[in-house]
Amino acid sequence: MDRTVLLVGTRKGLWIGTSDEARVDWEFTGPHFDMEEVYSCMVDTRGDQPRLLAGASSSWLGPQVRHSDDLGATWAETPNGAIRFPESTGATLERVWQLVPGAEPGVVYAGTEPGAVFRSTDGGETFALEQALWDHPHRPQWNAGFGGQAFHTVLPHPTDPQSVTAALSTGGVYQTNDGGASWEPRNQGIRAEFLPEGQQYPEFGQCVHKVTRHPARPERMYLQNHGGVYRSDDHGASWQSIADGLPADFGFPIVVHPHEPDTVYVFPIGGGDRRYPPDAKARVWRSRDAGETWEELAAGLPDGFFVAVMRDAMCADGHERAGLYFGARNGAVWGSADEGDTWRQIVSDLPDVMCVRAAAI
């Protein structure tokens, strides 16, 4: 693996960066899908050649999942946008918030707004609704947060195709272990701080911002909540706080190291109306012991940083010496080629960054 590809989805298109394994000098092309919102993107490295997928939304044509098999030189549109709700649901697709590969060849999952999960078996060209989740009795009570009601996280089990974990804003974490025939909430121990005292640990209704895990230890999961950072060691059956030692427990992204299940990264920001980092200093925080202790990563990162990093705007690549990346709402993307020890700005002046995805190819 001697090349790196970085996808940057923004409110006004997609940019594609490429570099060598050193990840110092970058070349970017874009905007792809000019003036379309790109809330989700994916680099699929499972085949003979990488496939890029992007969930873009045009104010004129609506949402569309596009794919490219030549690193963005050309893009193919898919029938009817690839993802559409069946007429029987009475729902209309607004955005595609998540695109992620499944455990089986050709399987891709998508999380959408309104809150639903779709599954593809042909590499993301067509998708089918996970009907049992859509019909879940809790769904009428899933409210819309400030960002809308959406399944923003889908985590297929790395070795068990029957198991998928998904999370939505103001609904919490749900999981199937029977191939989508049934789904159950997995929120025990996650606090909903916005609810009255005595009601802050409901069965569902938490505002979960992001969930991640490492494929080598899938029973361990990490979660960034609307107020709270958590770890589960039993596949989401219960959660415990790991926020002690962080400057704030509010944030959007949480990323696990691609080779170390106990190493996890967060980007804390202030709660309430203060959607920028504590003291307005851009800082990534890393734990190497599954959240027992945390260290601040600051080398190369700016002060005077009055913007947020969104839930899918932080990621890692797959190089042996892992690279980390985050994009901010000021249109800048920062990268580290040494697991977060040092950082440098690799592109600036893009539109509002909504998602970043990186891969070694």
Automatic annotation (TrEMBL):
<dbReference type="GO" id="GO:0010411">
    <property type="term" value="P:xyloglucan metabolic process"/>
</dbReference>
<dbReference type="InterPro" id="IPR015943">
    <property type="entry name" value="WD40/YVTN_repeat-like_dom_sf"/>
</dbReference>
<protein>
    <recommendedName>
        <fullName>BNR/Asp-box repeat-containing protein</fullName>
    </recommendedName>
</protein>
<dbReference type="InterPro" id="IPR052025">
    <property type="entry name" value="Xyloglucanase_GH74"/>
</dbReference>
